[in-house]
Write a structure and sequence with these properties.
The chain has helices spanning about 5-10, 40, 60-70, 85-90, 95-100, 115-125, 155-170, 210-230, 255-270, 280-285, 285-295, 300, 335-350, and strands at about 10, 15, 50-55, 75-80, 105-110, 130-135, 175-185, 235-240, 305, 310, 315, 330. The protein has an eight-stranded mixed beta sheet with strand order 5-4-3-6-7-8-9-10, sandwiched between helices. It has a two-stranded antiparallel ribbon with strand order 1-2. The longest helix has 23 residues, at about 210-230. The protein contains 13 helices and twelve strands. α6 (about 115-125) packs parallel to α7 (about 155-170), α7 runs parallel beside α8 and α8 crosses α13. The chain has about 350 residues and is an alpha/beta fold. Helices cover about 40% and strands about 15% of the residues.
């Protein structure tokens, strides 16, 4: 879940800590916790010669992920719906990137328009530009009214999942042995499982958070199905929950309505005996993406949902949990379910499975 900066700092008089306690020391195998930053995870990694494709790098987690990888030498190809906005955001990091030998190339792409996704992916395939990492970062959250993509799919399902499904399918041939697909999911997956029949809310009333939850469950399942298809050739996939962070993802929400929803969730969190919610900085939020992409063992993360720089615990079906507690629901961690969703996505988009 992503929350606003004001809410991360203070809630009903209780200050949320943005500190770095329990930092783990060096060991033979480095481990990291929820407070690790991108730079800590990447310490000692030289990414020169690595090529990375990231969606949505004009702000927030995507920008930080692109900066961190490029500042360690990677060649990053990043997308943005608004290239002017992306160029403006990248001005602040280009000098740092240039010193490292890395680079960031920005290309326009709209995940809500599958023709746009195919055009970008196919251009890379035609140019035969191999990839070591694909990071499906971009997304939208809890759009208040029922909207649709250019192809007529519910906007969050179409943008967050179907756009990335088509992208992953088309870029898969470019991924080198040892490559990884990292898909941003969210603990909001616990709000709703995917609906393979009423994915467009044609039979049930539209709810912004249900739609968001469905799309984030779909993202987790995308990683599972992709990993099953490509692991034999040494390409792995995982999904990640970045944590509660201040980003532009809340831009479609009314502040008062979001505050009320956050208050209700936090009160329930406290009633369950949990300590006050702790938000993350953007470098902390992007750290799990970087960890799964670069630092973690491929067999450890392949086909799994990760959070706080580790593979998440699978929650029993009868376990009640706070919106802020860790863990992944079984329905977002099931290969058969992932295969059913993959087949439905292939049917809806016309992509060959």
């Amino acid at each position: 879940m992503v929350v606003s900066g004001a809410l991360l700092r203070i809630y009903s008089g209780a200050t949320f800590r943005l500190l770095h306690p329990n930092r783990q020391g060096d060991s033979a195998v480095k481990t990291f916790d929820r407070d690790a930053t991108t730079e800590e995870v990447l310490a000692g990694h030289d990414l020169c010669g690595k090529r990375v494709f990231i969606t949505g790098i004009s702000a927030g987690l995507g920008l930080e992920t692109a900066r961190a990888l490029a500042s360690h030498g990677a060649e990053v190809i990043g997308t943005a719906r608004d290239v002017a906005k992306g160029d403006a955001a990248l001005k602040s990091v280009r000098e740092e990137i240039a010193r490292s030998g890395g680079s960031i190339r920005l290309v326009p792409m709209d995940l809500a328009d599958l023709a746009s996704v195919r055009s970008v992916a196919d251009a890379l395939v035609t140019a035969d530009e191999p990839l070591d990492l694909v990071i499906a970062n971009a997304g939208i959250m809890a759009t208040p009214a029922l909207e649709h993509t250019k192809e007529g799919f519910e906007l969050q399902f179409g943008t967050n999942f179907l756009g990335h499904f088509v992208l992953a399918q088309r870029l898969a041939p470019l991924m080198r042995e040892g490559g990884r697909l990292i898909v941003l999911s969210s603990n909001a997956h616990r709000m709703a499982d995917v609906d393979l029949v009423d994915y467009n809310f044609e039979s049930t009333p539209y709810d912004p958070w249900t739609a968001y939850g469905r799309s984030k469950t779909a993202d987790a399942l995308l990683a599972i199905a992709f990993d099953a298809r490509h692991r034999d050739r040494g390409v792995r996939a995982a999904s990640v929950h970045p944590g509660g962070i201040q980003t532009e993802l809340t831009r479609s929400l009314e502040p008062d309505a979001f505050m009320a929803a956050f208050q209700a969730m936090h009160e329930e969190h406290l009633k369950q005996g949990n300590p006050p919610f702790e938000g993350k900085t953007i470098p902390q939020g992007a750290a799990t993406t970087i960890w799964a992409a670069i630092a973690a063992d491929a067999d450890e993360i392949g086909g799994h949902y990760c959070e706080d720089c580790h593979v998440a615990e699978v929650l029993a079906d009868n376990v009640e949990t706070s919106a802020f507690n860790p863990g992944v629901r079984r329905y977002a961690n099931d290969l058969d379910h992932a295969e059913a969703l993959w087949a439905k996505a292939a049917e809806l988009t016309g992509e060959k499975p």
